[in-house]
Amino acid sequence: MAKSPVRAAAEPPIPNRERPAEPQPYQASKDELLDFYKHMLLIRRFEEKAGQLYGLGLIGGFCHLYIGQEAVAVGLQSALNGDTDSVITGYRDHGHMLAYGIDPKVIMAELTGRAAGISKGKGGSMHMFSTEHKFYGGHGIVGAQVSLGTGLAFKHKYSGDGGVCLAYFGDGAANQGQVYESFNMAQLWGLPIIYVIENNQYAMGTSVNRASSEDQLYKRGESFRIPGIQVDGMDVLACRGAAEEALAWVRAGKGPIILEMKTYRYRGHSMSDPAKYRSREEVQSVRDKSDPIEHVKKLLNEQGVAEDELKTVEQAIRKAVNEAADFAEQTPEPEMGELYTDVLVERY
Ligand SMILES: Cc1ncc(C[n+]2csc(CCOP(=O)(O)OP(=O)(O)O)c2C)c(N)n1
Ligand SMILES: [Mg+2]
C-alpha cells in the first residue's frame, strides 16, 4: 500500500517544552495571614447573610453563593497588582469583589437591587462590576468570561500596560467550545492571561467525573501548549503560592497558563438547588477535613494569635455584614428613569 502523504509529511514530535516550576506555599507573615483570615471570614459571613436575605425574599433572581471556595479568590487576588491587572469571572462573583476590599454595603445593595448598589441595582448578584478595581464582572453566560478575559489580555498586550488578566471559570465551563478557541488565540499571540479553573467538583447537579472525559482539568491546555498547575484551592497559602508562580510565568512573556484550583462549594449551585445529587455526609466531610478558614485559624493559633483576638475580628466582621444588610434593605430602589440609562439604543 502506498505510504500516506499525510503521514509522510508529519512533523517530528514536539521537543520538551519549558514547564513552570512547582509552586511553593506562600510564606505569609502573621499580619498577612490575619489579613487572609479576615477577607475569607468576611466572604463567609457575607454569603451566609445573603442566603438569609434571599430566604426573606429581599433578594430576587439568581443568587450563587461562594461558601467553601473563599481561599481561591483571596489567595489569588492578594498577589495581583491592583493598578494594572484585571479580573473577570462568572456569576458566583460576590467573593471576588469582597476579596478586593470593596465595601460590602454596595455589594449587598446590589443584591437587593438598590440604586446605591455597585451596578446601580440593575445587575444583581450575577452582574457586578468595578472598573475602578479593573473587575470586569460578573457574567451569567457560562464560559463567556473566558473569551472576554482573553480580550482583556489582548488589551493588556496591545496597549503595553504590563497588566495580566485573571479569568476565572468553573469545571463545567471548562467543557465549553469557546474556552478552547480562546486558549488557541491566547497561546498563539502570547497573551498575558491566567486561566483559573475553579473546580468545585460540580456543575449544577453534575459531578466533574460524570461530565469530563479528562477530569484533570489542569491538563486542558496541553493541545495548545499551555501549561497547567493543579492547586489545593482549600489552602490560601497554596493559592497565593500558585498565583506567584503563574504571574511570574506570564509577566516573563511566556504566554498564558492554567491554574486548576481544587475546591468545593458547600451550598447548592444557587439558592434554588435542592442538592439531591450528593449526600450531606459528603459536604460535612469536606467541611470537617479541609475548611479553608479553619485551616488559617489553626495556623494563626500556632503563631500565637490568641482566641480573643480572633473573636474580636469575628465580631467586627459580623457587625460590618449586619450594617451592609441593613443598608441594603433601607436604601432606595433606582428611579424609574434608570430603565433608560446604560442601555444601548443606537447602532455601533
Ligand atoms: C451558555 C450557558 N449554558 C448553560 C447555562 C446554565 N448554567 C448555569 S451555571 C451552569 C453550571 C456551570 O458550572 P461550573 O462551570 O462548574 O461553575 P460553578 O457553578 O460550579 O461555579 C449551567 C449549566 C448558562 N448559564 N450558560
Ligand atoms: Mg463547578
TrEMBL record:
The enzyme's E.C. designation: 1.2.4.1
GO MF, one annotated term: pyruvate dehydrogenase (acetyl-transferring) activity
UniProt KW Manganese keyword: no
Domain Dehydrogenase E1 component stretches: 39-335
Sequence segments annotated as region (Disordered): 1-26
Keywords attached to this entry: Coiled coil, Oxidoreductase, Pyruvate, Thiamine pyrophosphate
Catalytic activity: N(6)-[(R)-lipoyl]-L-lysyl-[protein] + pyruvate + H(+) = N(6)-[(R)-S(8)-acetyldihydrolipoyl]-L-lysyl-[protein] + CO2
Tagged with keyword Manganese: no
Transmembrane segments: none
Coiled coil: 296-330
Cofactor needs: thiamine diphosphate
UniProt record, GO biological process: pyruvate decarboxylation to acetyl-CoA
Pfam family, one: E1_dh
Task performed by this protein: The pyruvate dehydrogenase complex catalyzes the overall conversion of pyruvate to acetyl-CoA and CO(2). It contains multiple copies of three enzymatic components: pyruvate dehydrogenase (E1), dihydrolipoamide acetyltransferase (E2) and lipoamide dehydrogenase (E3).
Assembly notes: Heterodimer of an alpha and a beta chain.
Name of the protein in question: Pyruvate dehydrogenase E1 component subunit alpha
Gene: pdhA
